[in-house]
Amino acid sequence: MKPIIHPADYYRRLLGLQSHALKRLDESVAIVKLNRDQQVPEEDGTAGRWYYVIAGAVRRATIRPDGRRQILDLMLVRDFFFVGDSETEEPIEAVTEETVLAGYSAARLENLCERDRQFARELREITFQSLERSRRQLIVLGGVTTADKVSAFLLLLEKRYGDQRGDIRLPITRYDLAEYLAVSVETVCRAFSDLQQRGIISLIGIRMVRITDRGALEHQIGRKYPNAVSDTIAA
Fold first, then answer.
1. List of domains in the chain
2. Is residue 235 predicted with pLDDT exceeding 50?
3. Which of 11, 138, 184, 217 has the highest local Cβ count within 10 Å?
4. Other beta carbons within 10 Å of 18
5. Residue 78 and residue 58: Cα distance in Å, rounded?
């Protein structure tokens, strides 16, 4: 089924409903809509651009010697990331057809930082968020088994996007998740089936997962995650 791509004004309104560090610049933001596998645009000769994910997902990836793609960094809704014009960096591409970004000129942000200390703190917050994303992804990839990695990924999604019932809509396909975890898609599917057979999760359709035994999911990775609902309230 072909996804619905709304007009830019729709995504501006959606951006207005989301809380983020560059909120004061929402009115002048550039809305960038991408199809799957389309590269996030670079700006030659400029200081680069910060992007905020309004919808969909993007990846920074490399091609391994065996020809398979390895996702090095995965940016989901409410994540910030930076794109410069360095030829040595891996390209950043859309993972889903309905990927929409808000773009902010890095040069403008730097100028604002020089005049506004509060804004400088907000920009530092974005940098810290990027570092925290890398830390969270290391936790996911640090699992011994694929079931460990899938469990950590589900708990990460629950913390950020889960509802009170523990329902999570997977933002990427199992093929994309396999590239992220550096395993085969068959191995990812077996891990989901294993967790479902053990009563830890329920699969509701292709892209919806319900966590039915959070304690067992945490035990799978050997650590606790903050509760998704309480974490949202605390924020």
1. 7-116 (2.60.120.10), 143-234 (1.10.10.10)
2. no
3. 217
4. 14
5. 12
